[in-house]
Amino acid sequence: MIRKAAILCSIVFALMLTACSSNSSNNASGSPSGGNAETNLTAEDEIVITATNYSFDQKEYHLKKGVPVKITFKNENGNHGILVPEMKLRLDAKNSSQVILPEEAGTFEMTCAIMCGSGHSQMSAKIIVE
To answer: N or C: which end of the chain has fewer CB within 10 A?
Structure first.
């Protein structure tokens, strides 16, 4: 019974990852709406987000609205990534930096993009665009 539940959970998780990765590749075209990656942007600012097991190095990261920023992801311990769907931002070991243009003010939830173990669901931080 436990084995069936584990298999079912694995299938559901794989489907969720597939849906998330399909959304990321569809948005790679860089349309000009809020927070999308723009390949022709030059960053005026840079932040580095560092991950260790079950936490990011800060609880909040502050960005300025309308200012292109290069976000660089560093993984110090474990296997992690970052995901901010509203900003079309997904970084991991293979794709560790991206320039974005935050066009919408607000608070956005950043979560770990890779299932990393028992503390995965608590691994989150805020990106605040002012």
So the answer is: N
